[in-house]
């Protein structure tokens, strides 16, 4: 094994790690191994973003490798689906069973009756993002569209400014005005915070736009709390103000922006007074925000993933993208927008995933609508007869999840799940395949939160009979008789071939540097001098920031969908940004609101990483049980007291939680967080109330666009067990 410093001591070695999670920070880690045991995992102190600290989720990551609940051997169901009754079987038997069932399905229904279901449960280029695609493409299976996150914002981004990463998160250190829009940085992008702190120490103002007083909003100089899904109105009114008050940089706009006259016309009626009625933000505040932003140099915007999660979310994102284009903020080092910066990484998606193997016409099913697909509500010919789920936990994380559970109970469905634990989804498997954890396999991480590649070295042997995802697919390929050379490559060979090392942004930073340093930043210019769009140079067809689109159609970009070579042209897109009303809001749906008057949002839990860690009692104590934040007004109306057990429900389903009454939420809004396991909750999970509807673009989810009712179910003493969260530290030392 290539240890960093094999001489540390005879018995102690250190290896480079990369956090495998779907988190923008992609921390560079150091694994310490004593004998054959992983004894410590810490943040790499030399990494400019990780700075030696991991988050509360991973500060005891070595222990997780030895968690007693891990799946260490292949398992076969030994009871009704969902009963969690499994028996250990050999790998040979597991593979033989899969071969038998899949061969029969292929001969009776065709390979499209088999559907892979995966996402970024592991975000590695080898073990996560791409793994299994080539296998299923060769097999002829249904193509899984995976748009849980950032697909909508990516479509809006690609249409407006092209595949550019734009603002370096490290450049925020030089900001003078920062807007965090729909992102809870202190929980979800923690390692960006020090750059914001540095900027504030130098006088920057921090504005957070979030419907509730999140951890991050509490730290802001100014918290603006619009109703969920009304950001489009807010952004359009900012645009109206910029234009009406002559705060537009006309030189920049004339040279580098497409569609200003048309936007001006559309924005004319979007006054702050109009937006106040929709968003609940006072008109004067909207004007003040627009003025402050436009008159500050080095004005930065961070847009979080949450912004896309309503019917109008992606249109709102387009409007937000127009703002720095109108003010010429891109001319400054810290000016512009930090969205998911993933486009500059020269990943060989095509060579690894082999989309060229997908037969023309192969159907695509979106995993957010898995429930409908499994229950046959979406007409599918052939119906789905088998699922292989890996790197995802749709029973908890997708939409309309009660339907998924019902579908997974189908007797004629053969479900294979590869996971580290018996997740809420794995509970319904016929066969579970045991997967490795990060220190047990090789990988290479890109990032959607910074510009560094991070190497992850195998530091210890896989426990029991666990296998890396890549090894699982090598075994499956052999079992199914697929002999292409792709299926023979080792994990290390896959690591080396994941990147196009000839690309200009990786010159001088190949595998050798990664092996000696553990990480390497793309050559995109220094964070303190870089202004990639000071002179336009947007990678769009016109080379400009395209506020006005011509003949644009909806599409899902890779890596959220694989059909790289096939034109994807969905519904036409509004040529201009604007405000699209949510599907469900009390203002727009008064009849529905009589039954379900409250909007719900369920963003990320501080102490969980999606559903990861929510199976650890320690992390559950930190996070507290499934809570439901209610305003004093809404609680009083329902005679709910703090600590009462409540049911949250709507037409789609329901879940139970514990009420916390707080001014952090406005009347009409309910906030909870996602990640709690169905198995641990009294009833359902937050996505039991999420209707399976796509947002505006990129087939993104609409987790923030559901009306619900809340009802007290029992007295408060019954609800108190370990509900009170412990105070949670932000970063480990
Ligand atoms: N601790 C922790 N960190 C994580 C994760 C985790 O599960 N736990 N998950 C990781 C993943 S997969 C992702 S995608 C990122 C996501 O990270 P973020 O982009 O921060 O997403 P969320 O935490 O879901 O939501 C951020 C904030 O947006 C607000 N919000 C919700 N709807 C709206 C809206 O309509 N408008 C506006 N303006 N704000 C809205 C929420 O109240 C919330 O405070 O976090 C990553 N990091
Ligand atoms: N209401 C609501 N719903 C949401 C969100 C929200 O904010 N609110 N967020 C959405 C977003 S942004 C996202 S990204 C999705 C996330 O949804 P998922 O990606 O489904 O979430 P995870 O809980 O991370 O599930 C990953 C699973 O993969 C397993 N796993 C981890 N590593 C490995 C590995 O190396 N090999 C294998 N085989 N398995 C592994 C884990 O144990 C876990 O069971 O959820 C979405 N759902
Ligand atoms: S902040 Fe935590 S979850 Fe995110 S990359 Fe770092 S260690 Fe991983
Ligand atoms: Mo995500």
From TrEMBL:
Keywords: Iron, Iron-sulfur, Metal-binding. Residues 12-69 form the 4Fe-4S Mo/W bis-MGD-type domain. SMART domains: Molybdop_Fe4S4 (SM00926). It comes from the Bacteria. Coiled coil: none annotated. The keyword Cell cycle does not apply. It holds the Pfam family Molybdop_Fe4S4. Gene3D superfamilies: 2.40.40.20, 3.40.50.740, ADC-like domains (2.20.25.90), Dimethylsulfoxide Reductase, domain 2 (3.40.228.10), Formate dehydrogenase/DMSO reductase (3.30.2070.10). GO terms for molecular function: iron-sulfur cluster binding; metal ion binding; molybdopterin cofactor binding; oxidoreductase activity. CDD domains: MopB_3 (cd02766). Belongs to the prokaryotic molybdopterin-containing oxidoreductase family. This is Anaerobic selenocysteine-containing dehydrogenase. It comes from Bradyrhizobium erythrophlei.
